[in-house]
Amino acid sequence: MTAETTAAPTGTSSRGSRLLGVVTLAGLALVVVLAFVATAADTDMGESVRLIYVHVPVVTAAYLGILATTVGSIMFLWKRSEWWDLVAASSAEVSAVFMGLTLVVGMIWGKPTWGVYWVWDARLTSTLVLFLLLLGYQAVRRTSVDPLVRGKRSAIVGLLLLPNVVIVNRSVEWWRSLHQEPTLLRLDPTIEGLQLFTLVLAIAVATLLLGWLVIHRFRLAWLQDQVDRRWLVDAIDERRAEVPA
Amino acid sequence: MWSTVTSRRRRGRTVFRDAALVAGKDLRIELRSRVGLNQVLPLAVLMLVLFAFALDPDTGVLERATPGLFWVAVLLCGLLAVQRAFAIEVADGVTDSLRLSALDPGAVFLGKAAAVGLQLLVLQALLLAGVIVLYDAAPSGWPLLAATCLVATVGIAGAGTLYGVLAAGVRVRETLLPLLLLPVLAPVLLAATRAFEAGFDGRSGEGWPWVGLLAAFALVYIVAGLFGFGALLEES
Asked: Into how many domains does chain A fold?
C-alpha cells in the first residue's frame, strides 16, 4: 500500500488552494461591483446586458473544464493512473454545474431580449445536449466502486464528449440554415472600455473559480477513494484476527 | 515485409469470420427466443397507434410529423434491441466466455453491431409499411430512403453497441443506457428525419447531404467501437 505511506491530510485545503480561494473571492467581489455598479446599461439591451458578465465567463470556464475532462480521459486510458481519472471526473462535475448555470442564465437573458426563453439555435441546442451528456457521465461515475472499472467506463464516455458536441452542433446548424431561419440578434463585439475590461476580468475570475472548485473536488474524491480502500483493508484484517491461531 | 502483409490480411479475414460467428450466435438466439418478433415489433406498431392518438390524424399534423415519428419509434425500439443484445450476454456470465474465447474484441463489437443492425432493418421495414398503411404516407424517393435507413442503422447499431457494453455490467443498466445513448443519437434522429422528409416530398436532392452526415456519424462510432470495445468488455 503505497497510499498509506503518504501523510494523511485532514482536509481538502492547502496553503496554495487557500491563496487561490482568497484571490478568487476578491476577484468575484470586484466583478460584482464593476458589473452592477460601475458599468453603464446597454443602449439596446438595457439592464439585462449585465447578465453577459455571468453568462460568457461561466460558459468559457465550463468548456475549459470539459477540455480538462477530455485530456484526463485520454491520459487515463494511456497511463491508467487514478490521478488522471479523478482530474477528469472532478472537472466534469464542476463543468456540469457551470453548464447548468449557463443554460439558466441564458434563458433568463433570452426572455427580455428575444421574447422567448429558448430558441432551437445550434449553439443553444448543443449546449443543452452537452449538459445532458455531462449528466450521463455523472451517472457512469456512480456505477462502480472499483477505480479501474469506473475509470475505463467514464474515460470512454469522457473521450466521446467533445466529438458528440461537434456532431450535434454541426447538424443543428445545418438544419437551421436549410430552413432559412432569420439569424438571431447576437451580442456583437462592439463593447469596449470598462465593459470589455469587466468581461475579460469576469472570464479570468470564472476560470480561477473553476480551478479552485476542481482542486477541492479532486482532493475530496481522492480522500474518498482512500477511505474506501482503507475500509476494505480494515475489514480483511478484522476477519483475519477472528480466526483462532 | 511480405509476411506482415499476409499476416495482416489473414488477421483481417479472421476479424470478419469472428464477427460473423458472433452475429450468427446473436441472431440464432433471437430466432429461437423470438423476443424481438413477439415483443419489440408489436411495440413498434403500438407506438404508431399512440402517436395517432396524441396527434389527431384529421388535422394534418400526423402527416407532416410522419418522418420524425418514424425515427423516434426506431430509436426507442432500437434501444430495446441493444438492451436485449447485452442482456443475453450478462445473464449466464457469457461475457466471461466471450473474453476467454480469444475472439478479437473488435470482431465481437462488429458481430454484435451487425446483429442489432439487422434487427433494426427488419423493424424499419415494418414501421415503413406501418406509416404507409396507417398514416397514408406516400414515400417517393426510394433510393434515398433505402440509403438513409442503411446508413442510420450502421450509426445506431455502432453507438448502441458501444454504450450497450458500457452499461451491460451495471446494476442500473435499464435506466443508464437511455440516458447515455439517446443524447448521443440526437444527430441521427435529426439527420434521418430531414432525409426522410425530403424523400417523402419528392425532393431527394436535398436529402443526400443528410445521408453524408449520417455516414460521418456511423464512421466515428464504428472506429470508436473497434478500439474502445475491448477495454469495456473486460470490465462488464
From this structure: 1
